[in-house]
Automatic annotation (TrEMBL), chain A:
Family: Belongs to the RNase PH family.
Subunit-level organization: Homodimer. Component of the RNA exosome core complex (Exo-9), composed of EXOSC1, EXOSC2, EXOSC3, EXOSC4, EXOSC5, EXOSC6, EXOSC7, EXOSC8 and EXOSC9; within the complex interacts with EXOSC3, EXOSC8, and EXOSC9. The catalytically inactive RNA exosome core complex (Exo-9) associates with the catalytic subunit EXOSC10/RRP6. Exo-9 may associate with DIS3 to form the nucleolar exosome complex, or DIS3L to form the cytoplasmic exosome complex.
Gene giving rise to this polypeptide: Exosc5
Pfam families reported in the protein's UniProt record: RNase_PH (PF01138), RNase_PH_C (PF03725)
Organism: Nannospalax galili (Northern Israeli blind subterranean mole rat)
Protein name as it appears in the record: Exosome complex component RRP46
Annotated signal peptide: none
An annotated GO BP: poly(A)-dependent snoRNA 3'-end processing
GO molecular function per UniProt: DNA binding; RNA binding
Compartments, record wording: Cytoplasm; Nucleus, Nucleolus
Transmembrane segments: none
TrEMBL record, chain B:
Keyword RNA-binding applies: yes
Keywords from the UniProt entry: Acetylation, Cytoplasm, Exosome, Nucleus, RNA-binding, rRNA processing
InterPro entries named in the record: ExoRNase_PH_dom1, ExoRNase_PH_dom2, ExoRNase_PH_dom2_sf, Exosome_comp_Rrp42_subfam, PNPase/RNase_PH_dom_sf, Ribosomal_Su5_D2-typ_SF, Rrp43
Protein name: Exosome complex component RRP43
Exoribonuclease phosphorolytic domain: residues covered: 25-160, 187-250
Top-level taxon in the UniProt lineage: Eukaryota
Length: 235, 270
């Protein structure tokens, strides 16, 4: 029988500040992940970051329409459903970002002429939504057993008007910020897989945010490892 | 070509590309302003073979209740079947939607026009600028061409003076008095394609985009500030490689600005 594991993790930065309630400086919100909670998809995961929650389901490798098939690798599809309303152009743009990130890590060549579909449903949005979607998608792909070259995670960085860096901002902080940058980093060398930004910022600030995101991604990858260890050690 | 990727690799080894360009060289950029007389502003941009035309129409609208002193700028990118065999008729495909969202983000992030400048009477009347970008020939690097076309067209827009008549509460348009828009910054997009996870080439053609393992677009304004760093997945990049891209984007921004200023000067002299 599948065991549903709930893995919680409180993340602390090396400077020793607790992450909840969040103090000044770089720290991530409390996050949690639950895998294998849906019965129909091949893999599913729910990722919580503070109050932001995204549910992901993965179907694949499965049959693909002849018009969409690629002869030497798997066709990846991402569907993102917002919490309210019909999906629009903004959702299409985010789907493209998530899809290209997954395509960079999934070993599609092992499953040619098949389709791997990732469906994301936004359950609640309290800031850093795209990063949460990326994390949920990664956990769901792992749960489905899709072969991947590396894991990936999403990190959001906000720059306020004084130039202070804030990781994993809430919706209020994102609104007040001068710039919001979202990065997707891979687990092997923390290379930048995907980036999308809002607002104006300088080149030096970009490098600063990237470095902070790379440090934060270490925590997230450690959390992935712990949650998977806990899940498989019981069964 | 039977093995397009191998063919390309042979050129990349010699640090050049099949069309004779260096890895950091852009295609010939040409711009033509004011060609559409029925639009309030227009521009046609050619980046090698890639051709994008932008037309801006200004209309009246009531500002929304949560932003009563702001006008609207509505961009729309259309990739018709005319420009490439990969697009079909019907509702906009994914590529068109993603490009439209990208242009909307660039306008929002770079604050190219302050929406407050488009307001005529707070709460009652404001301008809405409909920016329609149509691709006439798709040969790669659509984002750069669209951003440039949009900027050139907005610089060409002339809005008539509008006064609200106190007695009738109707808007009176004075077509004889027209003024240009206040363009605050000049955002310029520079696109790169990543090959084999290591090599970065600038301004990819359609075929190069197809063979590339990843793409990256940097939008920079003249103060060295980044408006947008758009990297939709693809192979990973280190911080150092990003830095090289930034410096190339800075030089490109200066080239494009110079070209634009020359064209506008020649227009005004007429």
């Amino acid at each position: 029988m599948e065991v549903v594991m709930r893995a919680d993790a409180k993340v602390r930065v090396e400077s020793g500040t607790e992450s909840s309630p969040r103090g000044p400086g770089c720290s991530l919100r409390h996050f949690a992940c639950e895998q294998n909670l849906l019965s129909r998809p091949d893999g599913s995961a729910s990722f919580l970051q503070g109050d932001t929650s995204v549910l992901a389901g993965v179907y694949g490798p499965a049959e693909v329409k002849v018009s969409k098939e690629i002869f030497n690798k798997a066709t990846l599809e991402v569907i993102l459903r917002p919490k309210i309303g019909l999906p629009g152009v903004a959702e299409k743009s985010q789907e493209r970002l998530i899809r290209n990130t997954c395509e960079a890590v999934v070993l599609g060549a092992l499953h040619p002429r098949t389709s791997i579909t990732v469906v994301l449903q936004v359950v609640s949005d309290a800031g850093s939504l795209l990063a949460c979607c990326l994390n949920a998608a990664c956990m769901a792909l792992v749960d489905a057993g899709v072969p991947m070259r590396a894991l990936f995670c999403g990190v959001t960085c906000a720059l306020d008007s004084d130039g202070n860096l804030l990781l994993d901002p809430t919706a209020k902080q994102e609104k007040k910020a001068r710039a919001v940058l979202t990065f997707a980093l891979d687990s092997v060398e923390q290379k930048l897989l995907m980036s999308t930004t809002k607002g104006l910022y300088s080149d030096a600030e970009l490098q600063q945010c990237l470095a902070a995101a790379q440090a934060a991604s270490q925590h997230i990858f450690r959390f992935y490892r712990e949650s998977l260890q806990r899940r498989y050690s019981k069964s | 070509t039977v093995e397009p990727l191998e063919y390309y690799r042979r050129f990349l080894k010699e640090n050049c590309r099949p069309d004779g360009r260096e890895l950091g060289e852009f295609r010939t950029t040409t711009v033509n302003i004011g060609s559409i007389s029925t639009a309030d502003g227009s521009a046609l941009v050619k980046l090698g073979n890639t051709t994008v035309i932008c037309g801006v129409k200004a209309e009246f609208a009531t500002p929304s209740t949560d932003a009563p002193a702001k006008g609207y700028i509505v961009p729309n990118v259309d990739l018709p079947p005319l420009c490439s065999s990969r697009f079909r008729t019907g509702p906009p495909g994914e590529e068109a939607q993603v490009t439209s969202q990208f242009i909307a983000d660039v306008i929002e992030n770079s604050q190219i026009i302050k929406k407050e400048d488009l307001c005529i009477s707070p709460g009652k009347l404001a301008w809405v600028l409909y920016c329609d970008l149509i691709c006439l020939d798709y040969d790669g690097n659509i984002l750069d061409a669209c951003t440039f076309a949009l900027l050139a067209a907005l610089k060409n827009v002339q809005l008539p003076e509008v006064t609200i008549n106190e007695e009738t509460a109707l808007a009176e348009v004075n077509l004889k008095k027209k003024s240009y828009l206040n363009i605050r910054t000049n955002p310029v997009a520079t696109s790169f394609a990543v090959f084999d996870d290591t090599l970065l080439i600038v301004d990819p053609t359609g075929e190069e985009e197809h063979l590339a393992t990843g793409t990256l677009t940097v939008v920079m304004n003249e103060h060295g500030k980044l408006c947008c760093l758009h990297k939709p997945g693809g192979s990973g990049l280190t911080g150092a490689k990003l830095q090289d891209c930034m410096s190339r984007a800075v030089t490109r921004q200066k080239e494009v600005k110079k070209l634009m200023d020359e064209v506008i000067k020649s227009m005004n002299q007429k």
